[in-house]
Amino acid sequence: MKNVAVLLGSLSENSINKTLAKTFEKLGEGRLRFDYLDIAALPFYNNDLWDNPPAAVTDLKHRVEAADAVLIVMPEFNRSFPAIIKNALDWASRPYGQNSWTGKPLAIAGASPGGVGTAAGQSQLRAVLPVLDFVVMGQPEVYFQFKPGLIDEHFEVTDDQSRAFLAGFVASFANWIDKHGERDTLSVAAE
């Protein structure tokens, strides 16, 4: 079973993105194990803190390094991605030369009540990820329009078409991890 470090871009207890992540977790049972990282505990990035890094920072880096892959599930704020995601990305990529994200297979998903989901925010995030040396899954993209009753309190998807789509995303991500989890730099560069 593959260990997936999960970054949730919403701090809300009743977040629809948290519900979406828990739904992915349920759909991936037996193949993926989710580790929800406590990125809310991170201070704002400050390079001066590396002499004595906060426990939340060292915990983040250790758990990312132990993970086989990373999943970001996030809302969209003002046509961009949440600052809490950027802060976590920055902390785990530092100090210079000690990027914990290097070579990690990554997938992105997001939910919104709106019709375009989180497309603009994910586009902004995708512009940042190559610099961090992730191996980013391009397809399928999940800009999920969250409607009341679509996912029940047990994280079961009540609509067959939506269930098939989300299960397809999870299967594609698991396959992506299998393919790129033990990255051979030459083979990735040649793809």
Give a written overview of the molecule.
With 191 residues, this protein is of the alpha/beta class. It has one domain (2-190): Flavodoxin domain (Rossmann fold, 3-Layer(aba) Sandwich). It has six helices and six strands. The protein has helices spanning 16-27, 55-66, 83-92, 119-128, 160-180, 185-190, and strands at 2-8, 32-36, 69-73, 105-112, 135-136, 142-145. Strands 1, 2, 3, 4, 5 and 6 form a six-stranded parallel beta sheet that branches. Strand 4 (105-112), helix 4 (119-128) and strand 5 (135-136) form a beta-alpha-beta unit. Helix 1 crosses helix 5. The longest helix has 21 residues, at 160-180. The radius of gyration is 16 Å and the shape is globular. It starts with a strand and ends with a helix.
